[in-house]
Amino acid sequence: MILEQGNVTELLRTYFPQLSERGLREEIAQVGKVMTFSAGEMIMDYGSYIKLIPLVIQGSIKVSREGDDGEEIFLYYLQGGDACTMTFTCCMRDKQSAIRTIAEDDTQIIAIPTRYMDEWMMKYPTWKNFVMTAYDRRMLELIDTIDQIVFKKLDERLLNYLRKKAQAVGQNTLQTTHQDIADDLNVTRESISRLLKNLEKQHKLELGRNQITLKKL
User: Fold this and answer.
1) How do residues 147-173 score in pLDDT, each as one tens digit?
2) How far is it, in rounded angstroms, from Cα 90 to Cα 205?
3) CA 177 to chain centre
4) DSSP-assigned states of every residue in 107-167
5) SS3 89
6) By three-state DSSP, how is residue 94 classified?
7) Of the candidates 66, 86, 92, which has an alpha carbon nearest to the alpha carbon of residue 134?
8) For residue 57, which of 109, 127, 135 has the smallest C-alpha distance?
9) Is 22 exposed, middle or buried (CB count within 10 Å of its CB: 0-12, 13-18, 19+)?
10) pLDDT of 72-123, one tens digit each?
């Protein structure tokens, strides 16, 4: 993690125009810090207490959940203009994190101390609307994840996962391993390898060494 100097006000105007109240922007500029994480770097782990609310400026963050059996499953990605609603919930209730967040690629955020969460909810309508909109978006993401697990065949889940990953990093060629994908989808590596070969035969993707290129449909 790298702490940077940056013009927080300008970053807010560019990536979070909905936070338009002057007083709110001034407060975020006063207390917010610009932080950069390298691809693969862990931002938050299971069981940690939330001290900062991340507003994602650039890059993408993978959010995962761990079950009681220790198995992990991918939930969704956060991208520029997003905020993590799980951090909202944890900081409001002073709870330990139930998720793990990892920078999918080089990622930059504005980090805001959690103590301002409640104060701004009462003080600034645009902040309250921002938080509620973020909750709504993440809820739809989670519903889609549940639908994929319950109603979709594994090959459909796999292709949907790869497309989301490609959208998150902004390119069709993904640097990943079959084991990484299996871990995210909570299935065996052998099943992922078999399905990827089938999808390649269907000309939906091309396999390389630790690399997958999605074909444009």
Assistant:
1) 888 778 899 999 999 999 999 989 999
2) 39
3) 19
4) EEEEEEETTHHHHHHHH-HHHHHHHHHHHHHHHHHHHHHHHHHHHS-HHHHHHHHHHHHHH
5) helix
6) coil
7) 86
8) 109
9) exposed
10) 888 889 999 998 887 777 666 667 788 899 999 999 999 999 889 889 999 9
Residue with tokens 């003080």: 123
Q: Are 72 and 187 contacting, i.e. CB atoms less than 8 angstroms apart?
A: no
How long, in residues, is the chain?
A: 217
Partners of residue 110 on adjacent β-strands: 34, 55
Helices (H), 64-124: 85-93, 116-123
Secondary structure element (H or E) that encloses residue 14, with its range? helix 8-15
Question: Given the DSSP bridges, would you call strands 211-214 and 99-103 parallel, antiparallel or unpaired?
Answer: unpaired
What per-residue string of b and e applies to 50-87 under the rule 16 or more CB within 10 Å gives b? Answer: bebbbbbbbbbbbbbbeeeeeebebbbbbbbebbbbbb
Q: What is the mean pLDDT of residues 179-205?
A: 93
Element (DSSP H or E) covering residue 175: strand 173-175
Q: Two tokens at 38?
A: 């390298």
pLDDT at residue 142, rounded to an integer: 80
